Structures are given as C-alpha cells and as structure tokens.
Amino acid sequence: MTPDLPTAKAGSTHLLEVRNLATRFATSGGYVQAVDGVSFHIDEGEILGLVGESGCGKSVTSLSVMRLIPNPPGEITDGEVLFEGTDLRQISEQEMRRVRGGSIGMIFQEPMTSLNPVLTVGRQITEAFEIHLDLKGRAARDRAVEILNRVGLPDPSKKFDDYPHQLSGGQRQRAMIAMAISCNPRLLIADEATTALDVTIQAQILELLQSLCDEFKMALLIITHNLGVVARYAQRVAVMYAGKIIESGTADEIYAAPQHPYTTGLLSSVPRLDASARDRLESIEGEIPDLANLPAGCAFEPRCRWAVDRCGIESPVQLPVRLSQGRLAEGTVHQVACWESENIAAGTALEKQPS
Amino acid sequence: MTTRLVGQDSSDRGGIGADSETNTTLSVNDLKVHFPISSGFLIRRQTGAVKAVDGVSFDVAPGETLGLVGESGSGKTTTGRAILQLQRPTSGSVQFRGVELTAVSAKQMRPFRSEMQIIFQDPYGSLNPRMSAGQIVGEPLTVHGLAGDKNQRRDRVAELLERVGMNPAMIGRYPHEFSGGQRQRIGIARALAGEPSFIVCDEPVSALDVSIQAQILNLLTDLQAEFNISYLFIAHDLSVVRHISDRVAVMYLGKIMELASSEDLYENPTHPYTRALMSAVPIPDPILERRRERIVLAGDIPSPINPPSGCVFRTRCPIATEECAEVVPELIDRGNRHQVACIKV
What SS3 class is residue B242? Predict the structure, then answer.
C-alpha cells in the first residue's frame, strides 16, 4: 500500500534506483565518507546481491535508502533514492514512515537487538498491520499466525504470544523476517539476514525469500559478504569496496569473468565446497583500508598487484567492460572501475614488484 | 623469515590418517559430556541432563587435521574443550600420546597444557586487553619455563610474532590497536609459544572477512607443515573444513553422523544429514548452482535435553522410517575408513 506521494521530477523506470548516493559520518578525526557515489537499481521480482567485506559501506547504503542514518553524526550529502519514481530523500519523515515496513521491508543482521524485548512477537507484527494495512484484532492475529507459519516457525499460534527471549536465534531471525514481509513489501532489503544462522536454516529462509520474489514479484536486495549465497540467488551483483561500487553486472558475468582485481582476489580467496582440498588459497595481501584515511586515487591500489602510477593519483570511474577488440558484448551490463582491467584481461598488465 | 615447507609431507597426510595405535597423537573413545539440570527450591535434585556430547570416538594422527563440522548446538566446541580437559568429560576416554587424560589430576595435566593448545573463535574476547602483544605471547614461555632470561624471552616472542606474519616492532601494542586478522595472528603465536604438537582450532576464521580468512588458513597450513602439528579444526563452514582437513567428522546433536577422509566425504556423502548440509552450502558459481540439487531440511535442531529416540536426526530426516525411532545407529565402517551412522543407507 503505497501512500500518495509527490512524484519527483526525475523519474525512473526501475522499482528502486539509487543515483550517486553519498553518506558521511562526522568523527573526531574528520569526516568519514562511508558511501561515496553509489548507483544501482533493482526491478520488480529481481534479486540483487550487494557484496563486500566489513566496512565497505554496504550496510550504510541500505540504511541510507531507508533514511535510517542517525543524524548527527551521519548525513546523506548527495544523491537520489528513487523508489517507484519518488525520491525518498525529498519526502517528509511522516511519509517515509509509511514506506518503511510498508512498501519497503528490511531485515537486519542482529535478531537479538532488532526485536523489542518487552513486546510479544505477535504484537510486533500486528503493530505493522495497524499502521500500514489498517488491520486490527482477530483478523490481524490470524494473518500474523499465517505469516509466522510461512516463515517456518514451529507452532506459530503459540509463538505469537511468546516474547523474543523465549525463541532461539534462528526462530528470532524468522520472526524478524515475518515482520519484514508481513505487509507484502515491494522491496525487501536483507542486510546479512542469514549470516548468523546455521546453513540448513539459512537455506530454508533464502528459499522462502526467493519464492516470494517469484510469486509476488517482490524485489530483494541481498547484502552479504557470502559470495556463495549471491551466486545461488542473485541475478545481478554489485561489489563494494571502501564506499564505492567497483564492479557490477549479472551474476554469470561477474563469477565467470571478474574484471576488478579485488573481485578476482575475493573469489579466489574463498574456499569452495567443490574444490579439492590442499590447494593454497590465494589471499589478498594487506588489510581493508581505514575509511577516515583513504589513499588518493583507487582505494584498492595499496593492495593491488596490478597497480600502475595512475591508480595512486586518479580515482577510476565505472565503465562498461569491453571485449578484447574494444567492442561491447551484446546486452552486457557488466561495468568495472579499474584503470588496468582491460590490460589485465588481455594479459598485458605488468605485475607490481613486491616492495 | 623461516623457510616454508609447504607440502613437505603432504603425501602421507593426503588420505587416511592414523594407521596404527602407536602412530596416534590423540585417541578419543566414547566421549560423553552431560551437563546436569537441577530443579527444586529447597532440595535440589538432578532432573535431567543436556547431552552436549554423547558418545564420540575418533583418532588424530601426527601432523593430521581432523575437521569437526556441525551446526550450532551439535557439541563440537564441547568436544574440543573436553579433549583439553577444560571441561571434564562425564565418561569416556581421551588418550594423548598414550596417556589417559581423564585420569590425570589438574597438576599432572600441567605439562600437557603447553603441548595441547587452543585457538579461539573470537579474536576480540580471547586476548587480555590489559596485556601487550608481547606479554600475551610471552606468558606461556614463562608459565611453562620455556625461555631462559628476559632477553631470550624477548627474542623468542619477536620470532614467534614474525613467524605468524606480524611485525615484531608491534610487540608493545595492545589488542585494541590491532585488526581482527592481526589479533587472530597473536592468538596463533600464543598457541605456538608452547611448542604444541596438537592444537584445537575452534572456529578460528569464522569472525574474519574472507580476504583475511584466506591469509589465516594459509598460515595454519604452513605452520602445520613446518612443525608437524595435529589440528582438531572445529568449524561450521563446510567449505573451510574441506579445504583444511585430511579427515572430517560431521556432528549432529552430540553424535558423529559420518566420518571419512575429506575427499571421500565431499565426493561421496552418505549420511542424509551430510547430504542435506552440503546441499545447503552455496558454491560461488551461479551456473553450477542452477544445476545443483537442493535438499531443504524442515525445522530446527532438537533440544539436547530431550533428544529424539533412536537416531537423533530422524525428526528432520527425509528418509526416516519408524524403525529409526527404535534403533540407535552405530558408526560403522563402510570400507576405506568411511564411517556412517545410519540404518537406511
């Protein structure tokens, strides 16, 4: 149920389109640019994977979309967040509240801290019904029980009256998911939603979310560091590093032919279930950079073995990936932000000598 | 830097581990750890028990890595702690180099404390925030009398830090000044200080980012090759366990469901639980993923206070029959040292 919202000038044909989003935090050591010019979009029924390691800005991106950045110290400084054609940055807080939990649902990583400990699980779900669907009493309860059943909570009518502490970790996370999907959102943001769960429970939850996308054309933004989860469920992938999207494309394109040295490194540093044991893992040297103290140029330059002089001076922009003859592959959406990617792909890049 | 000896003895570590009683670092037999539950206000009586570990048996050979996988609540951490006698077992035997550890006193346990080490999951919680990196790594040297004077101790600490890939100049820094990966390296250096022949690695990389995780896994592999250390590698991530282990034991609700060489287990998983667990782990390859069979288990892991009768997995098992509620399946060798506890396969 989308409320009547003022339509922004700049329309978008996508369900969600984020353009040039920038979010920073004030710290004692100056501003930290957590999200720096991020653009992506999601269509109806689509699953997009936003991948990156801790501190890359993937959670801040999703919180910025939901306008949940605490201000101060946080501040969205630039960009547009077009949801169904409306710029969420321009609407009032009251209108935003109708979007949150209504047409955009969100699941957080920490099921322990995201639930209210003094309200029953059921009450936390029916609260959303009152606000967004004007559903009360018996009808609200029946529907909540139905959704709790749907997310695979055993004995849902009993669990409706339980408090969060009476549930196990996996059950709490499923209660969170029930809350997030209870109002049939058009878009669901799952921020490391299954990271704390056991693999068999993770599989249950993700299969459920995928079926919601297929059945109700819900769009799903999966934010995770788990490259396997993204490969299994997402159609498109965006890889973040130090506040920027450094590579994006279809899952097939990115996993089959990663272009950015960081993406390549990330993929080869994960042990794979189908890989024979004892092969040495290729690790990325060094540590994730401190966002308050980023190097000039490409943020990955200090860890990159293909870096050239230009990389330390000029920040690379995202450009379409070209085939070896400089042509674009037909229908490609693959983009990469790396000065040397074409040379690396062609095998003509020079490896940096270890200092 | 010390010379790396990767793959030096990989030929005898690739397949099957301990081949005779004499060539075993650790031998665990029918290990049980039950935590009593008491109730009553004035007269407290034991009314039940949490069967965290319920009859677990395995061997670890010198220089071998045995992976222990399972979901939360399967008893894998308790198994590790019971082996080190950090948690006294309820019953069963733990033999380390032929010595029955369950029978020795805390004082007699002392020399084994340096030879058997542990690396913890949480690199934030397992280092004393008031001690510098040098003090943390140096403490085992003092406690076990492994370093002579102050200078020797300092040199040894610097050497250990360097061996785990840290700059020895960081010796005076405190845990909060390090990243997660660096802290885990300090934890490894501390374990190495005791010159161990056996280390329990309890989820050593699960709190780390993937790029850092690979660095730590490579380090553990190098150290094992260099010092011929045996690992009991406890983790919930099957891909990591496959990567690092020679043999793997799959635990569920305090029992081992399947135990086989790493290659054999992953190529030919036999127990329905192992199969479901593997199919639940996504592989970072979208094209392959579209072809894979997905077995989604219903429900949660049951409570270890009141585990199901017969086979503990039967409540979630896709192929369970009435018979499974009657018989407790034994872990039986199906040839090639591939052990499976299931009456249906």
Answer: helix
